[in-house]
């Protein structure tokens, strides 16, 4: 199964080829992949309904505790079905929506990659595996939001979405690592079984906050909600799929998945229910300020995501059943509504609902689909959305903490949402006929089938709630709760408080819809206040990042090489000096056993080096470097290294020749630094020298390991048949090193030749325009 | 002998770092030579210094007579000397080339990427 899911990546890679074969029908061909997966997942429904949990084990990196194990329980199956079923229709829909688009291939590649990542995210059992898929969805979402990359707004929104979700992803990674440490396991199912340990653990608070940051940014919770409406710059199929039905629910999925292990504490209940309720209200409130149909829907998605978070926060059995129901209901109607919005945009040429009107006779099927989906969004019986809303009100009424606040926010959000539903579902189709930029007509079948099926499902499940209730939702709710529950959904709950609240919100919502233009005008006065919202904070932060990186680049990457070297040398002195002086007492042995000629040789060596630094003539510098080199050769010979002595002698001779040949084409020694700089450099260089001396003296007294050269000495003749042990090491024991050395030399030689040839080429070019070269010799 | 060598190595390092910190590119070349020699000496002396016992095995024997100098640092330094020369040759030609193009021997004037 893992391979079947991951083969989607391969399919994505072959999408260009399929385009060559199938042309405009590629979308239909590709839709076979999610459809087949959907059928397989549907086949698992009976088993999962019976409370079974399918574990498909597959190791990936066992040493890191990473597995590709997939676990199919009610929750992941519900998500997998949403992803594959809606994915199928979105692909078909995109074939119509992006018909003839030059970048349709790119769209297919990325959306398939997203689909597989999202499936991996909801099915993975390993924490780290899930995280990998999580980040993949962020990246594919970025690519899809910025699909129209020639558009500045699209690029900006794509970046914003990426930064917000990936910043949350970083926090999530920290949270997951802490979770793994706290639980001692990297498997979600094992962690969920040890909830009592986790909730008592010292790391509980920090890990929960990190996980929540990840989930809240991904699922556009207040105050991170702003990226989602901006993500509407993506083509509508993407909005329908990623930014309402699937990806934005990843954060919700994570919270639901971890609920058995982490949920139920004061902290969990407090943060989730309040943040969720705030998000719910913010989304609904901001929605009615907009006339762009996609923004309206996006804000109402924010509202739905807030509702889901709030229900997880309340955490009673009823609330979690409501959670599963609302999740399914929302994906169905919001997917349909987004696709309807795409049809309207596609056929009328505008996204502004106030510019549309009376379209029903022109596009009757679209109007009907929109009406059903909008009624479900509004929560009108007998649609599935009504059941979800009833359950939501019921659980809010039984909320333990912050009940008054949550209740107020939930009720306000409900009637605002009803206004949104009316604006989207009624306004474009009824009332007076308006002129649209394009003359509207019914959409092609490929674009209608998706929203129609989803809308019909909303109606069907509403009429026969037991179908979904006893089936998938029982299993999903059980997985979130952590123990089996029985869900029995029904349309009619009797006349109770939730029903009255529904009726009241319907009335208020409809009234708001009638006066929408007026209210929107009033709300426009709040615009200056809105401009200071969380998005302004994001902008300020991004600006700050640019300023800081600009400043630190100027300081660190200043382009002066001696500054870099100075930093390196000072760091070396600081670090090595610190551990040498503080951790080891530097050992200074004054046991000196020297002979006169040795002192003379070493003295020449030192004098040569020092004279090279002070002389103002290039020739004397070369000569003193030569003296130093030959003294080193003598040192090698005096201390039992004849091979080294010979090599040094040869190389030193070559060096002097090279310097004489090349250096004299370079300018004379210039005196460029001030005395202060020179004194500073002397101090730095001097301290480095003293440190090295101390280091060498200390190192002699330390024998960490037995030298390995004993083996080489003993086996030089028996194994390698050589009498010069140094040679044997070079050509036998360390032959690969020598091979590498030969390569380095060859590379250097090629570089030298290339640069010399280049110079010759320049000279040839210069013959045309004679110019006297500055020559100094 | 080792303490004296330690002082010599330290002096070589100091001289090398001082030269590398100069702004004149010619002095930079001198600094590179000093630095590679200092490193070679450092490795060479790391296993101690032995007089008159090269790691050679006399004809007819399968092991050296008595203790010999550690051959491993010598082999490493042998590689290092040759590599250092390769790097030096490359650096010298590179600097020569850079001077031709930039027409300045001041490293501070070479900080722009376009000339």
Automatic annotation (TrEMBL), chain A:
Q: Determine if Lipid biosynthesis is one of this entry's keywords.
A: no
NADH-Ubiquinone oxidoreductase (complex I) chain 5 N-terminal domain sequence ranges: 63-107
Q: Where is the NADH:quinone oxidoreductase/Mrp antiporter transmembrane domain?
A: 124-407
Per UniProt, what is the membrane topology?
A: Multi-pass membrane protein
Name of the protein: Monovalent cation/H+ antiporter subunit A
Residue intervals passing through the bilayer? 30-48, 78-98, 105-124, 130-150, 162-183, 203-228, 240-256, 268-289, 296-314, 320-344, 365-384, 404-426, 447-475, 495-513, 564-582, 594-612, 619-639, 645-666, 682-702, 739-758
Q: Which residues form the MrpA C-terminal/MbhE domain?
A: 677-757
Chief subcellular location equals membrane
User: Does the keyword field hold Chloroplast?
Assistant: no
Ranges of residues in domain MrpA C-terminal/MbhD: 604-668
Q: Which organism is it from?
A: Billgrantia campisalis
Automatic annotation (TrEMBL), chain B:
| Segments passing through the bilayer | 6-21, 28-49, 75-95
Keywords attached to this Swiss-Prot or TrEMBL record, sorted alphabetically, are: Cell membrane, Membrane, Transmembrane, Transmembrane helix
Keyword Transmembrane helix listed = yes
Q: How does it sit in the membrane?
A: Multi-pass membrane protein
The reply to whether Membrane figures as a keyword in the UniProt entry is yes
Where's it found, cell-wise? Answer: Cell membrane
- Read off the NCBIfam families from this record: PRK12659.1
Q: Which family does it belong to?
A: Belongs to the CPA3 antiporters (TC 2.A.63) subunit C family.
List the protein's name: Na+/H+ antiporter subunit C
Question: What is the organism lineage in this UniProt record?
Answer: Bacteria, Pseudomonadati, Pseudomonadota, Gammaproteobacteria, Oceanospirillales
